[in-house]
Amino acid sequence: MARQLEEQIVARFPVGKRLRVLDVGMGRGAQALRLARAGHQVTGVEQDAASIAAAREAFAGEPEGIRERMRIIEGHAGDTGVHFLPGSFDVVLCHGVLMDDVEEPDALLAGVARMLAPGGMLSLLVRNGDAAAMRAGLSGDWAGALAAFCPPTASYGLKRLTSTLAGIGAPLHTWYGVRVFTDTAADDAVLPDDLDAVLAVEDRAGRTDPYRGVAALLHLCGVRG
């Protein structure tokens, strides 16, 4: 996903431009830190205290120039309008926020999109509602796979997301699949010796039909007109 995001940023913005980035649902700050290292001004919004503490610890080990480009605001993803003026950011990340149970997810997305300046880009990462049965099926959990064929109404597939992004003023520009072949790997799995090959295959599959359509996650990039 980081490769995909970098690809879109490089293609959309002038080389060397210091972007204003908002990371909504920042988590432990991996993407925020990577973008700050690239020279961008990054603001993270996170409500989980443990994640904030982990992010601050990671940031503390960086050079002063990078730390100065980072800011953390403790708050809910749906409260962006409380903290920022509309159009304040060139890039807004909303990664994983809609993977949890969220009340009125479309309204949350609309609020996030309002933070984009004209020409700004929204990077959205969600579970792929079109392939909800894949993980359970590949793991041999047949009952779970059958149940997943009837996902909750709140689930997002590509068609719904395309409509939603158009409706909130950030129409879909491009999309990728994430974790096409590796979604069943255990969280504590040892990294393989051929990790570069694994990443190359995932990167290729994530941008190639029909593979990207059955990925565990969808990474969509919408652009504010």
From TrEMBL:
Xref: SUPFAM superfamilies: S-adenosyl-L-methionine-dependent methyltransferases
Entry protein name: Methyltransferase domain-containing protein
Native species: Streptomyces werraensis
Domain Methyltransferase type: 22-123
InterPro entries attached to this UniProt entry: Methyltransf_11 (IPR013216), SAM-dependent_MTases_sf (IPR029063)
Keywords tagged on the record: Methyltransferase, S-adenosyl-L-methionine, Transferase
GO MF, one annotated term: methyltransferase activity
GO terms under biological process: methylation
Pfam families: Methyltransf_11
